UniProtKB/TrEMBL annotation:
Keywords: DNA-directed RNA polymerase, Nucleus, Transcription. Residues 71-144 form the DNA-directed RNA polymerase III subunit RPC3 winged-helix domain. It comes from the Eukaryota. It is found in: Nucleus. The keyword Cytoplasm does not apply. GO terms for cellular component: RNA polymerase III complex. This is DNA-directed RNA polymerase III subunit RPC3. The lineage of its organism: Eukaryota, Metazoa, Cnidaria, Myxozoa, Myxosporea. DNA-dependent RNA polymerase catalyzes the transcription of DNA into RNA using the four ribonucleoside triphosphates as substrates. Specific core component of RNA polymerase III which synthesizes small RNAs, such as 5S rRNA and tRNAs. Component of the RNA polymerase III (Pol III) complex consisting of 17 subunits. Belongs to the eukaryotic RPC3/POLR3C RNA polymerase subunit family. The keyword Ion transport does not apply.
Length: 259
C-alpha cells in the first residue's frame, strides 16, 4: 500500500531552509535511508530522475513498533525496550545472546524475558536436541510475534485507560472533599464550578487561595499535579490505542483486498 510519488527536486523545494543542505546532500541522506532493508521509503532506482514513494503499511508498522516499545518500557522498565527492539530486529535469540547483544546484565535479562513471556509479549520456542526431549538439553529461542504483541498491548492500554479514569474520579473526589471542608469556600462558592476552575490552575485561582491555609494549599497543589499526570498518561495511552487499532484495521482491509 503506497501513497504518492515524490521527485527529488520536489522534496528539496518543499523542505524548510536548512543551512549547508543542497540537493546532492539530500540525495545522499535519502540513499542512506534506502539502504535500510526495513525502510518505508521506496525508490525507482533511477539516478537521473529519481522518485520516491512511501510504503504506508511499513510506515505504520514502524509507528506501531515505537508505541509498543514505549508501553513495554513503561511496564517492564528501561532495559525491556532495548530487549524487545533487539528481538524485533534479530528474530530468534537465546537468553545469553539477548543479554550480550542488548548489553543488559544476564540476571535482569532473565527476569524481563520471563515477565514478557508470561504476558505473551514475547514467544519462546523450545528446540529439542536429545531423543529423550530433556528440557535441560533443549535450546530456548526467544522471538517476537508482532501481531500477538499488538493484541496484548491493546489489552494493556485498555486496562490502563480504565485505571486512569478510576483514579481521576478518586482524585476529583478528594479535591471536592478538601474544598467542602472549608466552610468559607463551601458557603460562598459552588463546589463543582470551583473544581472545574481548579483543574486549569490553582495558584491563579484567587477564590481558593485566599481561604486556604498553607497545609490545605499544599494538598490541593498535590492533587492538581496528580490530575495533570493522569491527563498526560491518558494522552499517551490513547495515542497507543489509536495507532494499534489503526494498524489492525489496515491489516484487515489489506487482507480483504488481496482476497
Amino acid at each position: 500500500m503506497k501513497l504518492g510519488i515524490f521527485y527529488l527536486s520536489k522534496i528539496f523545494n518543499n523542505l524548510p531552509t536548512i543551512p549547508m543542505l543542497d540537493i546532492e546532500s539530500l540525495r545522499s541522506y535519502i540513499t542512506i535511508f534506502l539502504d535500510d532493508s526495513n525502510s518505508f521509503l521506496l525508490s525507482n532506482k533511477n539516478y537521473i530522475t529519481p522518485c520516491y514513494m512511501i510504503d504506508n503499511l511499513k510506515l505504520l508498522t514502524k509507528i506501531c513498533e515505537e508505541n509498543i516499545c514505549w508501553v513495554v518500557s513503561e511496564r517492564y522498565g528501561i532495559y525491556s525496550k532495548r530487549i524487545y527492539r533487539l528481538l524485533l530486529d534479530k528474530t530468534y535469540l537465546e537468553q545469553k545472546q539477548v543479554s550480550d547483544l542488548s548489553m543488559v546484565p544476564f540476571k535482569e535479562t532473565k527476569e524481563i524475558l520471563y515477565r514478557m513471556y508470561s504476558d505473551l509479549v514475547v514467544d519462546c520456542n523450545q528446540i529439542i536436541r536429545t531423543p529423550d526431549a530433556n528440557p535441560l538439553s533443549s535450546l530456548y529461542l526467544f522471538t517476537v510475534n508482532f501481531n500477538q504483541s499488538i493484541s496484548v498491548v491493546l489489552e494493556f492500554a485498555k486496562s490502563v485507560i480504565g485505571k486512569i479514569i478510576d483514579r481521576r474520579i478518586a482524585v476529583m473526589k478528594d479535591i471536592r472533599n478538601l474544598l467542602h471542608k472549608n466552610t468559607k469556600i463551601s458557603s460562598e462558592y459552588n463546589i463543582d464550578d470551583l473544581c472545574r476552575s481548579i483543574l486549569k490552575s490553582v495558584i491563579n485561582n484567587e477564590k481558593v487561595v485566599k481561604y486556604l491555609n498553607e497545609l490545605e494549599l499544599m494538598e490541593l497543589l498535590k492533587l492538581h499535579n496528580s490530575i495533570s499526570q493522569l491527563d498526560y498518561s491518558e494522552i499517551n495511552v490513547s495515542r497507543v490505542l489509536l495507532v494499534l487499532d489503526k494498524y489492525n484495521n489496515v491489516q484487515i482491509n489489506d487482507k480483504t483486498i488481496k482476497k
